[in-house]
Known about the structure:
By secondary structure, this protein is α+β, with helices and mostly antiparallel strands. Helices cover 17% and strands 35% of the residues. The strands form three sheets. Strands 13, 14, 15, 16, 17, 18 and 19 form a seven-stranded antiparallel β-sheet that branches. Strands 1-12-4-10-9-8 form a six-stranded antiparallel β-sheet. The longest helix has 12 residues, at 186-197. The relative contact order is 0.18.
Amino acid sequence: MITELFVALSGIDVAAVMGAIPPPCRTAPCSFSVVNIDESEALIELPPCRPRVAVRHLLPSLSVLTDRPYSARFELSTRSDRTWSSWVATTTLGSAAFGALPAAAGGLTCDVDVYTTTAPVEEMTLCVRVAAADLRAVLDAPWMATLSVSDVGPLASPDAAREPLRLTVPARSQMQAPSEIAARICSPTSVAMVLEYWSRPEDTASLAAEMFNAATDCYGVWPSAIQAAGRRGVAGYLLRFPDWSAATWCLARGLPIIASVRYAAGELGGAAITETSGHLVVITGHEGDDVLVNDPAAPTAASVRRRYRIEELRRAWLERNGVGYVLFRPDEIRGA
């Protein structure tokens, strides 16, 4: 499988951003334009992106390093042969009421925050609609918009055993949050662990309240995690990881990965929950044939750190969707 990450950025060191993206997924930063709709709304427009191969999985995100409130929505059009689709929109992050756009058109479909196509597409254009009471201050803050695009080819086998590596990511259990939300906040809890790793600690329940998406009644809208981290000065992006070597590259660079996993009963030995249709864990390292993981579904913080077999985690993560959040402090990442 081939994944490329298209990036537009403003006010963030390019070398730091490139130093946080696995080399096979990197592309040179895109140009962009900002079109003002009115005093409180604008469009960040990326130029048409042309990946190396036709793709079917597209995943956008926006990271703005500001604590000022803002809303955002991603809008995408794709080209197959000579035909461009109509614009298709994700769910909105924040409280703004943007003009209606469809969730599907011309073979392009958006399920909350991820786009898929019925046939491979050769080119795509991303716009990010942003609204804020203090729009100029938001757009003047450092920001990066990204679009992960990938085909549906086979995954490479895991690399041969590497030297053991563990990142010291603090452990938190979602099950120790208030009972009415405990079972639902794996994403905020995972983000809280990685924020604390980057010396930006946050109360888990407060972070969950901030990341809650009322339109979907969900705490796990993926771009909301990137938005929340940005409010604390931690940049980030979403990536469909193409293989295990991209993950080990991130870990070797000191970058934990918040991974979206899905597995049936018996598919992940020693898991904190028996089965799941969608769950987030923090990958913190590897040792021999094991992956080291902080699993927020563990009943206590003391039991959060776990070992999962690499082949089983690879199946639950990379073979199911491969999506990961990568959060980083630009001031602590050396150039690639």
